[in-house]
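Fold sample X.
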Amino acid sequence: MLPKRETPKVKIDEALFRRIYAIVRQVPRGQVATYGQIALVAGLPSARIAGHAMAALPSGSKVPWHRILNSQGKISLRKEGGSDWEQRRRLQAEGVHFDNRGRVEFRKVAWEGPSWTWLEKNGFDIEELILRGQQKRRTGAWCRWRL
């Protein structure tokens, strides 16, 4: 049996969650991002932390949590069940289509990431972001940033 992968220990505080939520608010209607993409932009070592932030949102939040999917383009199942169908319903209402395996077609609906202007305005180090993406060998429609 393989050992369970541990999520790196990161102090999770309100400021970190606010940073994650600010990034998620940039994902436009009809597009999706991955937990890994949000983690990369936020400077986090693990996509799970972005997932924890989404799970911590209070009911009725204006943060568009439903636009964040796993790296397979699927809705991640919740431990406690519940909002999977709500997430799918919201995405479909925005024009996002799922195939018969429950996946979205990233090349059609993937968010390419926040604008350079937004990143600069919000104090992100763009060069560091690009290098981090390259080190993690991120590819896909959303990771076209170049130095």
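Fold sample Y, listed below.
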Amino acid sequence: MTVGDFVAINKFTDNAFQPLKVLSTVYNSVSKALIDMQNLNLLLAERPDIKDPVYAPTFSPPPSVSFPPSAIIPASEAGGGKKGGVEVTFENIYFHYPEQDPARVSSMCVCVCVCVFGG
């Protein structure tokens, strides 16, 4: 057997099994898609734990969000190469899950500072 014979047999074998590789890839894709559809249907069939009341108003975000001048941080105070930013503060946050006693988290304040970096 020469090197040419070996290369020819190797190429023939590759060409013979290439359609099987393509079919196996298609089969795997279809089976994964069917499983994903089944999982999505199960997820959509679940009932939510918390429902909005019938009289709940619809939320419509404001057309543009503007921050009060007191929330703007000057670049001189931002430091570290920052160009300034905005500080957002949430005060008196109360939170609990429905099955827990009320006011599990109470009177919590969160302050977030968003700064702009770069030139």
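Sample Y note: Residues 30 and 36 are 10 Å apart (CA to CA).
Also: The longest strand covers residues 82-95.
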